[in-house]
Amino acid sequence: MPHTNRRNFLKLSAFTSAFLGLPLADTYARATIEEKLASIRATKLAQGNSVMGLKVAPIEQVKVAIIGLGNRGPGHLNHLLSMPSKAKVTAICDIRKERTDKAMEILKKHNQQPAVYSGTVDAWKEMVQRADIDLVIIATPWEEHVRMGVYAMQQGKHVAIEVPIATTLAGCWQLVDTAEATQRNCMMMENTCYGDEELWILNMVEKGIFGTLTYAEGAYIHDLKESMFSKTRYYNQFRIRHHIRQDGNLYPTHGLGPVAQYLGIERGDRFNKMVSMSSLQAGLTEHSLTVEGDSEFYNQTDFVHGDMNNSLIKTEMGRTILVQHDVVTPRPYSRINALAGTKAYHEGYPSRLSLNSVGGGHHWLEEKDYEAMRTKYRHPIWAKLKKEIEQNGGHGGMDFVQMYRLIDCLNRGLPLDMDVYDGVDWSVVMPLSKVSTELGSIPIDFPDFTRGKWKGKRPHGIMANL
Ligand SMILES: NC(=O)c1ccc[n+]([C@@H]2O[C@H](COP(=O)([O-])OP(=O)(O)OC[C@H]3O[C@@H](n4cnc5c(N)ncnc54)[C@H](O)[C@@H]3O)[C@@H](O)[C@H]2O)c1
Predict the structure, then answer these.
(1) Quick check: 145 pLDDT over 60?
(2) What is the Cα Rg of the chain in Å?
(3) pLDDT tier for residue 27 given thresholds of 50, 70 and 90
(4) Cβ–Cβ under 8 Å, residues 180 and 159
(5) Hey, where are the domains in the chain?
(6) Which residue in 424, 133, 407 sits closest to 124, CA to CA?
(7) Does residue 45 have a pLDDT over 60?
(8) How confident is residue 35, by pLDDT bands cut at 50, 70 and 90?
(9) Fewest CB within 10 angstroms: 131, 194, 241, 243, which?
């Protein structure tokens, strides 16, 4: 069906141009676009069996290596150190020695002496060849994720990679192909899927509280101007450079991950197509005049990334999802976290719920009714890990729950909650939204990374294997 629509759309464009008396786009350009769009949705030949539901032998104590110890890596390190019977950090790496030195200060407090690698851009390669590693956690700048993940899997290691798992379509396929060829786990570390609010909603969805799901909204709305211009906050100021290179949704997974889980994406439904549109770019250019004169980005006028990007996804079952991205507007943080069903509606920031059964859903539930729903449908893992969550925290506790589940599933030989197909589905919104915005917000078909296996209903690991 999507293929026919694409041809129809292009015919329509030509027809519309003629109708409006505009010159037809030249045939060669249209053929090139058609080829590009066809290559985006094309499914490649598999290099191994699907890793959907992959089970590997239980690992009693998971031996972990970490690459990248900037803002994010030390949090992962601390969580691992809080579960010594389940996991042990055997090696760490950061290109900057000062970051491994800092991590060693933490490790020494726990009497741990892992192997340390630093100093060169490829020091991590030597590390992941070690025999005493089961799992490699990758918390480096976005551009490094694919080459590090692919190489680590080729060395026989499982990988857990920070968000987004890849920034290009080719990178997404490389991860899928390598996971299938090596039969290794490749999980994207989407911590928002483990939030108290998000797991509560997932639990309510599974219990039928929302009825039939129809649409959802997710976002990454986070004013990062100061951080992006800072010379020290991110390695090589990697985030702001993306705003010069590309338009689209640069960070889709925090908002989209939980929403995709509510909708059972790759579990009976899939993302079908997307249109993406960006606003005017103004925030970064204006801010660039307020930073130090010796900043590389002082008075920068060629940012191409619009301040707000809206991407609209249609699923195979006909549901729609709005995904927003805005990291420059002075406004409070939000991932929106909205979900609509025939019997209930939820909206986050702050979390509110309306139910058809209470006043026809015309008002948000009163606090005591809302709290009663929170208590009744709280995901059991939040009760089970209450003490550990209080002690370890991390974005309100979801970081700890994520690490606990990752390690616990490996300890018990269970499939991981999120597989490589989830990671690439949610991340590919970045390159596809770029293409859509570039081509005037035209619909772009999603590739089917599962090669047809999305059709089967299957339970979420976090719901079925506690
Ligand atoms: N899930 C979340 O809530 C969350 C929060 C923050 C960051 N992140 C993600 O974590 C990742 C890292 O972000 P960050 O804020 O920690 O960035 P950062 O720049 O602070 O840290 C990245 C680290 O990687 C190191 N590095 C760079 N190239 C390397 C190489 N070739 N070999 C070894 N080390 C190398 C850098 O020295 C740096 O210490 C990103 O993907 C980001 O999107 C996720």
Answers:
(1) yes
(2) 23
(3) low
(4) no
(5) 2-41, 62-189, 193-464
(6) 133
(7) yes
(8) confident
(9) 131
Q: How confident is the model over 149-162, as pLDDT tens digits?
A: 999 999 999 999 99
Pocket of ligand 1 (CB under 6 A): 67-72, 93-96, 99, 121, 124, 139-142, 144, 162-163, 191, 234-235, 395
Q: What CA–CA distance (Å, rounded) separates 436 from 278? A: 10
The CATH superfamily of 193-464 is Dihydrodipicolinate Reductase; domain 2 (3.30.360.10)
Query: Environment class of residue 98 by beta-carbon count within 10 Å: exposed (0-12), middle (13-18) or buried (19+)?
Result: exposed
Distance CA 395, CA 254 (A): 12
C-alpha distances (whole Å) from 369 to each of 211, 353, 355 are: 19, 10, 10
* Closest CA relative to residue 243, chosen from 175, 191, 290, 296: 296
The residue whose two tokens read 């209930």 is: 344
pLDDT grade for 34, boundaries at 50, 70 and 90: confident
Residue 163 to residue 158: CA distance in whole angstroms:
16
- Judged against a pLDDT cut of 60, whether residue 7 lies above it is answered with no
Whether the predicted pLDDT of 386 surpasses 70: yes
**What is the best residue among 76, 94, 241, 403 to mutate for testing ligand 1's pocket, by most ligand atoms within 8 Å of CB?**
94
Global pTM reads 0.94
Residue 325: strand pairing partners: 220, 309
Same fold? 62-189, 193-464: no
Ligand 1 atom nearest to 235, measured from its CA: 19
Q: Which atom of ligand 1 is nearest to the CA of 142?
A: 41
Top-tier CATH class for 62-189: alpha beta
Strand 62-67: give its sheet, edge to edge.
115-118, 87-94, 62-67, 135-138, 158-161, 186-188
